[in-house]
Amino acid sequence: MQDEEVEVGMRVRYHRTGTTGRVIALERERGELYAELDNTNLFYRVDQLVPAKDSGGKAMKTSDDRIEQIKKEREYLTGTGYQDAITHTDQSCEGGG
Predict the structure, then answer these.
(1) Quick check: pTM over 0.85?
(2) Coil, helix or strand for 66?
C-alpha cells in the first residue's frame, strides 16, 4: 500500500504472517511510515500491508457471541445427556497404550 492510502481505523492484513487488524496509529520513522495494529500492538511497514475485507475468513467473535456460547455450554453440562455420559464411565482417565 502507498502511504497516502492508509488511515487510522482501516482494516489491513500483513501478508507474511496473515495478521489482520485495524490501524490504531501511524508513525513515521527514518523516512518509512509504520502502522500500529490493534490486535498485536506492533508496528508494520505500510508498504507491506494490504487492505483486508471485513467479511470473509475467520469472523471475530463479539462479546454477545461468547456469552451465547457460554450459555449453550452451561445448558449442556446441566442437561441429562452429559450426566448420562458421566455415569457410564469409570472415570479412571486411562489413556491406554
Answers:
(1) no
(2) helix
